[in-house]
Amino acid sequence: MPFSSFENNSMSQPSYRRFLPYFALSLTSFTGVVLADDNKLTAQSNTANTEVIVVTGSRQESKLLNFAGNVDRISAEDIETVSAVHPSDILNRATGVHIQTNNGMESLPSLRSPVLTGPGAAGAYLFLEDGVATRAAGFANNNGLSELNLAQAAEIEVIRGPASAVYGSNAVHGVINVLTKAPSDGGNVAFHIGPNQRYQLQGTLGAEMEQQSVSGNFQAIDDDGYRDDSGFTSFKVNGRHDYREGADTFSTLISGFILDQDTAGFISSNDNGSDCYSSEHDDEYLYQDRDAMEKNCDDDAYRKWSSLRIATRWQRTLTEDTYLAITPYFRVNQMEFRQHYLPSKAIEENSHYSVGLASNYFWQVAPSLALIMGIDAEWTEGELTQTQQKPDTYSWGKARQQGIHYDYEVDASTIAPYIQGDWQVSEALKFTGSIRFDATEYRYNNLVADGTTKADGSACVNNADEAIPCLFQRPSDSDDSFNNTSAKLGFNYQVGAKTAFFGTWSQGFRAPQTTDLYRLQKQQVAGEIDSEEINSTEFGIRGVSDKLHYEAVIFYMKKNNFFFRDASGLNVTDGETSHKGLELGVNYDLGETINLAINYSYGQHEYEFDRASSGVVQGNEIDTAPKQLANTRLSWLPTAATKLELEWLHMGDYFLDPANEHKYKGHNLWQLRSAMKINNNIDLFARIENLTDEKYASRADYAFGSYRFFGGQPRAFHLGVNVNF
């Protein structure tokens, strides 16, 4: 297909110079088609066999059929078919999951929850790589999925709902665990071109020896962005080394991430008629004006982000019934960005590094009883600075001063013993239980003046030049501790060889993020924030056979001490919410060449408290909480060397504010993917995104008296080639 056929593109020369530093760092994967063992394409997605193994729910390998609790597994075939750029590309295929794409590599997740934003949203979900969290518990980031190399994973497992009894803090609404590929001989390299002058290169190189194996992956993306001045360059790299000697096995993983992004923020209805854009559309339908959606009213916004993670898992088999696994790890994360979504448009600089140790001891006490126990420990040093470049402003009763808003350091430590048990009561019935205690301590050091003054201790002023408190409050130095106990109880009852019923009661918690505690506003009281806590009950049925996999779950969750920022920019520290719904996942081989996958969820997410100042009334739906989500895919192999996949994604309507006065009507998107195997070494693939050219909002919001939107990508074509060697 010639370059001129790409839509919404000027297709000028690519920015090769932006790739050069990354080529110097990399030796190595980009696969765009699905290969069976006989080098033929396959339509099957998850139903290759009935002995499906999962690891995330219990920190060890378990058979899917007798696992007590929900789990969604995105297979290697799906991952390679999609070849994801953004987290939403692949994760929206999972039941009960929706990832909203903002700008560049930014995204906001939803797992059995609303799409949570702002303060309090970070830490609602736990992101893992081979079972190790990608960020420290008190230093989470809403966009944390961007760090993970989803396009080159072996599998992705999703647990919906709380899992703190297994993983501790932040596993409140769900867990996403990216499992990396074991090294193998050979490699591949692939090149993608797409809309908005997107150029994407990936590669893998690996080798297997007698007792060890090694591999390396890289992914480099250069994208000019759908909107003005919104391009980004992203680079991800993974290196893995596996070694076995007698009773010992070692697996070492090194992961790196770099992002350099020009950020485009919301298109706000308040800006209509300004120098930025002009539109005749009604405010609530502004997202349908593509000329407006292509504008960038925050052309000075940016995000620079880098991270590095190193982890080694050592496992020793002690006896036939016991083994010990210890995983020391190190991580460092640095970020600088402009808070374009806030009136101050301040620049935030944050960083943290951690050293930690995860351990577990497995003991098969008896044929019917198994225990896993261990201690997880972590120590972190972090810092944050927030600086406003704009002159002093006063609006909505809030004084925002030029200069430093916050400048602080935090040392954090966590130690968490836990124990899990599985009791096989009979051939059909199994009970499982776990309990964990997390002790978290923060040592906070404020580096500027305490209180609600400017950094030098002087007062802010209002429009009448009267001295008033500044909006930003800096607590004095403190040591803060949070102790949390979480538990899980569950059962699994197998009916025959292919069907099982299961149920769980589980708890989750989120110790306050350091930004919750130490980046306060003037109306807040230091020390009033408690750990978020959630209780969940679910019941489900699961079937696993040669042709059909399915899982249906009903759930109810209640959350206390919910922390969020309302539509007026006020922080709420003691909210209560409820979450209930139904989830259904089906994967069925209609024949040897046709596969149908259906993922559907219905959820009601409501406020369970009143707060007039925030527009919250008990029983109101939580904003950005669509009741219905659906993803359906039909895969077909017309020939042994050709594959087609048609995908439909449904987003239901949702309210945009806590008062439920403004609404987004939802949308339906279609994608068409194709792959063709030329020979054993060369594969071609293509994708049409937004096949029907739907005008939609990838994110809709109402705040500060304005509708705000991220416009969705118009119809766009992607092409690629993969070379195996």
Summarize this, please?
This protein is mainly beta.
Overview of the molecule:
The chain is mainly β. The chain contains 6 helices and 42 strands. The radius of gyration is 25 Å and the shape is globular. Mean pLDDT is 90; it is low at 1-39.
List keywords for this structure.
725 residues, mainly beta, Maltoporin, Chain A, 5-stranded mixed β-sheet, globular, disordered N terminus
Layout of strands and helices, then pairs:
Elements: H1 20-25, E1 53-54, E2 62-63, E3 72-74, H2 76-82, H3 87-91, E4 97-101, E5 107-111, E6 125-129, E7 132-133, E8 153-160, H4 164-167, E9 174-180, E10 186-194, E11 198-208, E12 212-223, E13 232-245, E14 248-262, E15 267-268, H5 290-293, E16 302-319, E17 322-338, E18 347-366, E19 369-388, E20 393-395, E21 398-400, E22 403-424, E23 429-446, E24 460-461, E25 467-468, E26 472-473, E27 478-495, E28 499-510, H6 514-518, E29 520-521, E30 532-544, E31 548-565, E32 571-589, E33 594-607, E34 628-639, E35 642-651, E36 654-655, E37 663-664, E38 667-677, E39 682-689, E40 697-703, E41 706-711, E42 716-724
Parallel strand pairs: 6-9
Antiparallel strand pairs: 1-2, 3-8, 4-5, 6-7, 8-9, 10-11, 10-42, 11-12, 12-13, 13-14, 14-16, 15-41, 16-17, 17-18, 18-19, 19-22, 20-21, 22-23, 23-27, 24-25, 26-29, 27-28, 28-30, 30-31, 31-32, 32-33, 33-34, 34-35, 35-38, 36-37, 38-39, 39-42, 40-41
